[in-house]
Amino acid sequence: MSDFLVQPDPGDARLTRRVTGVDHEGKAVETSVTMERPLTLFLNGQEIVTMMTIGDHPDCLAVGYLLNQGMLRPDDVITGIDHDDEIDTVVVRTQRKTDYEQKLKKKTLTSGCAQGTVFGDLMDEIEAVRLDPDAVIRTSWLYALSREINTTPSLYLEAGAIHGCVLCQEDRALIYMEDVGRHNAVDKIAGYMALNGIGPEGKSFYTTGRLTSEMVIKTARMGIPILVSRSGFTAWGVELAGQVGMTLIGRMKGKRFLVLAGQERLQYDADLSHIADEDQRHRRKGSSKDDAA
Amino acid sequence: MSDFLVQPDPGDARLTRRVTGVDHEGKAVETSVTMERPLTLFLNGQEIVTMMTIGDHPDCLAVGYLLNQGMLRPDDVITGIDHDDEIDTVVVRTQRKTDYEQKLKKKTLTSGCAQGTVFGDLMDEIEAVRLDPDAVIRTSWLYALSREINTTPSLYLEAGAIHGCVLCQEDRALIYMEDVGRHNAVDKIAGYMALNGIGPEGKSFYTTGRLTSEMVIKTARMGIPILVSRSGFTAWGVELAGQVGMTLIGRMKGKRFLVLAGQERLQYDADLSHIADEDQRHRRKGSSKDDAA
């Protein structure tokens, strides 16, 4: 049934913790909360950054982060990835000698979640991006993806307070990663794609988070021409999507969505009378206000 | 009726932009999207960071950011704040000579939104924080605050894709700031408090975002003992709240909420039969999944 190569593992005890508290009636309750732990990333001998992450797929997170920051080149040969669970470090080693001393000094904090940092020349680099103009997305695929993603068991459904990103192909969800920081989830997908030789051809990208400038930049860097979200848009996100020729679909809930860039890739093939509006039963936990997610 | 000292100004044309697109039926639509623009912050002669922000209250954002990062001390004398709208800069000048060359090198990217950066010694500093053990929060105040915040006109209701934070006193919402980055909204409140001589005594803090470690750290730095959110918790957020003696109230919607730390400050005085469950009419726009906001 499922085509997932990777999907959330809400049963993994390391990713959540049981805690106790009281509810609105003063009754004692026990609930699950999402873990967040530090992971310090080294590229060869150089300490790059300390990220807060739920802690799964550290190898994908490390490689994806470096790729999405332009510190690893697509043609770099990775000679090793060493993750040390005890001291919370991951070291990526490459054949090429790397040095990002200067690059690390120039940072822009962006408006999205976690790793909200665009290094100096990132904006320049995406100006060279050319996204596939012939890619298409059918509305029937959008509805099928939305249904599958929202009903797949996840840490979100188990403990909340987490973001999800999904690499999709036509109507199939392939790689579903979650993290406390949305950008960790994106980077883990980029890392998995690089480590497993999966290209952007024919792919679309789904996120639970907002369609901000940095989400558009990261998706463009990955070469993926279609970005879909349950959440809303920022003005710069829309503008950048237009510049790089990306299709930007947001506020997708039930049968509703809005396309604010690249609408020429959309093919309306779904029979809307068979698509339910999002009701309480289908709605993901949390129930309100994901526009700011 | 309203006690707001500051509240959102959804009519300010600089904060949103009208854009056109198509909807799920292929119909042309026009909608508002939130602005995000760069603001480069200087402390005296030193460039500190470039933030993405909606752009209102740059003076509050600048001062609050520096305070919450420990780069301004509470007793520092500010001799000037110069905002230049054309080149998107804000310069804060102090009597004391400042130098954060070393501090700027040691960064931890955290899991929340924007400015998700905790400088090296921030964790050490909050260990000295002592939050008022005698502060209380009544459930009737929580419900009154929740109702007022959710019905006040805002950029969120106008354009979505934005976070809100509110400084509260008893059942009164005092300072309501919004921003594309949640941490900008927090920092703008901290800056407003500092610039207007408003202390943390008797205050609580409401956020639309998740209760992560960095939200707890920022609230603790502001000296506010009670933190409330519509959204969910992370494990480290709960742990830190316990360490600093903060009351942490999350998943607050309609009559429901959950307290995972500091429950001794809570006073149950509301008649729950008069509090409505959150229904479609009262629900803020967006309608789903704010646990990951």
- What's the architecture of one domain in chain A in CATH terms? 3-Layer(aba) Sandwich
Counted by DSSP, the helix tally of chain A is 7
**What is the mean predicted local confidence, pLDDT of chain A?**
87
CATH fold field value of one domain in chain A: Cytidine Deaminase, domain 2
Q: So what's the oligomer here?
A: homodimer
Which percent range fits the helix content of chain A? 10-25%
Name the chain pair whose interface involves the most residues. A-B, 87 and 87 residues
Name the structural class of chain A.
Answer: alpha/beta
Which descriptors apply to this entry?
homodimer; 293 residues; alpha/beta; Cytidine Deaminase, domain 2; six-stranded mixed beta sheet; four-stranded mixed beta sheet; 7 helices; 31% strand; disordered C terminus
Write the layout of secondary structure elements.
The structure is a homodimer of 293-residue chains.
Chain A (H helix, E strand, L loop, with lengths): L15 E8 L4 E7 L2 E7 L2 E8 L4 H11 L9 E7 L4 E6 L12 E3 L7 E3 L2 H5 L10 E2 H13 L3 H5 L3 E7 L2 E8 L2 H14 L7 E5 L5 H9 L4 E4 L5 H10 L2 E7 L2 E6 L4 E2 L26
Parallel strand pairs in A: 3-6, 9-16, 12-13, 13-14
Antiparallel strand pairs in A: 1-2, 3-4, 5-6, 7-8, 10-11, 10-12, 14-15
